[in-house]
Amino acid sequence: ANNTMVPAILLQPFAENAVIHGLQSKPENRRLIIDILKESTGIKVIIEDNGIGRDAAKKIAKTKNGKGSKMIQERLKILQEKQGEKYSLEIIDLSGEKAGTRVEIFIPEEK
Questions:
Q1: What is the pairing mode between strands 42-49 and 88-94?
Q2: In the chain, domain spans
Q3: Which of 17, 30, 73, 98 is within CB 3.0–4.6 Å of 50 for a Cys-Cys bond?
Q4: pTM to 2 decimals?
Q5: Can you point out the beta strands (E) in 40-99?
Q6: CATH for 8-108?
Q7: What are the backbone angles phi and psi of residue 3, rounded to the nearest 5°?
Q8: How many CA atoms lie within 13 A of 104 on its CB side?
Q9: Please, what sign has the CA dihedral across residues 101, 67, 58, 55?
């Protein structure tokens, strides 16, 4: 069985953003889920919150989004160059009753 390491430098910023920007401003029923799923060629890490959503968080913070995302993209690029494998990142704005944000990171299996 192959072991695939989950780099903390990829998880920490999204978990932190979920708490600070998404959940902190929500009065009750706050939830943060971190799920790690095995896939055929690696693992998928899902970080999901039921916070206020990125648009509302931007209005409260009155800052432009992107600095943290750019930093993560740079980290993924470094990991890809180092390991020669394809990582992927998707940020999804959730809508409806639970609202919030879902981040999906694919980490290829180490060879």
A1: unpaired
A2: 8-108
A3: 98
A4: 0.78
A5: 42-49, 88-94
A6: 3.30.565.10
A7: -105, 130
A8: 12
A9: negative
